[in-house]
């Protein structure tokens, strides 16, 4: 896979220019995010395309981006399994990628 593009170019103009930066954590690693964007958008902009794997080991990530398909399911600490496209980033948010059967809905 090629290197991720400049994150500023992957964000909507109003978010690329926003001042609010928060730090979220994906599998224990810090990720910078812009206030007002979804977890899925922040992770995508930071180059994290893989959000979970299926029980067969297939990679899954953002698909519909509007909360219908559950392909972007991710574990949000304190909230359980959520759709990454429907959760807004906030300072200190802790996330974990789901693997195999734990991602089954």
Secondary-structure map:
Blueprint (H helix, E strand, L loop, with lengths): L12 H4 L4 E6 L2 E6 L4 H7 L6 E2 L5 E2 L12 E4 L3 E4 L10 E3 L9
Parallel strand pairs: 1-7
Antiparallel strand pairs: 1-2, 3-4, 5-6, 5-7
SS elements, strand count: 7
In CATH, the architecture is Roll
Instruction: Name the helicity range.
Output: 10-25%
The geometry reads as: globular
Q: In the residues, how many domains can be counted? A: 1
Question: Can you tell me the CATH topology?
Answer: Ubiquitin-like (UB roll)
Q: What is the CATH C level class, in words? A: Alpha Beta
Helix-strand topology string: HEEHEEEEE
- Strand content of the residues, in percent? 25-35%
Give the number of helices.
2
Class of secondary structure makeup? alpha+beta
Rounded mean pLDDT score: 87
- State the separation between the terminal residues, measured CA to CA: 28 Å
CATH superfamily annotation: 2Fe-2S iron-sulphur cluster binding domain, sarcosine oxidase, alpha subunit, N-terminal domain
Largest sheet: 5 strands, mixed
The low-pLDDT segments are: none
Please give the order of strands in the largest beta sheet. Answer: 2-1-7-5-6
Cα-atom radius of gyration: 13 Å
